[in-house]
Amino acid sequence: MRDIAIGQYYPVDSVMHRLDPRVKILAVLIYIVTIFFIDTFIAYGGLLLFLTAVILLSHVPPLKVLKSLRMIVYLVVFTVLITLLFYNGKPDDLLWQWWIVKIYRTAIHSSLKMALRIMFLIVGPTMLTFTTTPVALTDGVERLLAPLKLIRVPVHSIAMIMSIALRLIPTLVEEMDKIKNAQKARGADFDSKNIFKRAISLVPVLIPLFVSSFRRANDLADAMDSRCYRGAKGRTRMKVLRLTAKDFAAMLIMAAVLFMFLWLNFNFFPGLVDFRALPWFV
Amino acid sequence: MLAKAARNTYNKRMSFIELNAVKFTYNSGERDEAVALDGVSLSIGAGEFVAVVGHNGSGKSTLAKLINGLYEPDEGEILVDGLSTADDKNLFDIRSRVGVVFQNPDNQMVATIIEDDIAFGPENLGLPPAEIRARVDWALAGVGMSEYAKGMPFKLSGGQKQRVAIAGVLALKPRVMILDESTSMLDPKGREEVMRVVKKLVDEEKMTVILITHFMEEAMQCGRIVVLKEGKVFLDGGREILTREAELKEAGLETPFAVRMANALRARGIGIDADVMTLPALVEALCR
Questions:
Q1: Given Cys at both, which of A91, A247, B105, B139 links B167, Cβ 3.0 to 4.6 Å?
Q2: Top CATH class, B2-242
Q3: Helix, coil or strand: residue B99
């Protein structure tokens, strides 16, 4: 089993695990919006503290969380490089120049912020899937989207599709490994230096994977049918979602955190505390 | 009132599942048309432990899907507890009475957490949460997987996965459980685990079990054996069927080793009782 962190539940017991999924989903939404609003290092620092607290409270090993960043390493590096090379700053910010390459001080800041932003964007939702079972997640989505039923959106089906997709990720990864090994045994070359050759060599992996996914879908549909599934009709739940005191507390904390970040970032009360006066406020 | 009375008298009759001259064809009318069942009549009573055996393509897996109402027969009729599978309105009731455990354990798990997966069936029945919880715990205990309740299926062995699948069906509290080649993807140890659970269901829960298999050693543990050949019932009877080497060979099946050995010994004039079918029994008979 390879480390595909996203969509993986980490089964331990913690405050984070016990929170209502609806609260967690809303919290992640607030978190994502916050990331797009803030652009100062001090606010990112605050966000890091907040995230650290969440990770520690969740009892998920921090290393496991960091591993979820592995798959975006290239994206981050690429973004940083592009920003560094093509940023157009003011002449007095220019740090270093060679031929047409100009590195500005502001470009360094901007690219670092971009990198942080991407990483924060991945880690937050990953914490949601680490601490929430797909069934709870789906339940949460279904309940949150419930008002859309009024305009005939098939909320239950959407939630079910989501849950099955999450459920099948590890199975399909395993299957892909199997097919890859089978093709390797027949002499397929997946380690070619040539990126085009490597891409083409994936075709004989993807086609069997695609075909077998259809067979799986068929089998799964039969299994669901034979276990009396008929959509949302007459369906009840074993775990009924109920908001408790800790959920309200979590929502309050989330609201406070949001406000704090906005304050840190936009310096709402310069009369009270002036963050801009701090020497490292950039 | 009258209809209800009629139903009750029906239920009192011995057979729980009735197939009357059932025909089923895949891709009917097309070039790759394949007749799976060609006029099968069977009746299976409550509490029976039946093995359905047959060569590949004999139609045995189609049978499971027909009884469960996943397919509709082209001709003939299937009644489960008096309900016809041809009527879509009956399907929910039929499926709550007949559960199927399929071949590939990975393709029948709906949820990522074992207890959530087992709850899927009872949730569809619309039971109150406390009742669902009780059924999930009961079903998990029944297959000896209670300690894995909060675990994830993909970390389990094949035998364990299939036991979870059995629990998922068990939680629906069906009257009949069909195992559609449920052991064919397992290693010998996993097969043994699953068979132990199945026998427990038959002995302790008085569950009607239809075991579709191509392992004769498994079929041997059933009270009744139905042999299918080319979509027709070829043999139907007790365990003694397994000693009919020539006929089984005709159906593309192999007799269990102990039976072949005993037959060969008998042919050489060494008297061995007809009920010797397992290896330990054979050893004992020979040592006497």
A1: B139
A2: alpha beta
A3: strand
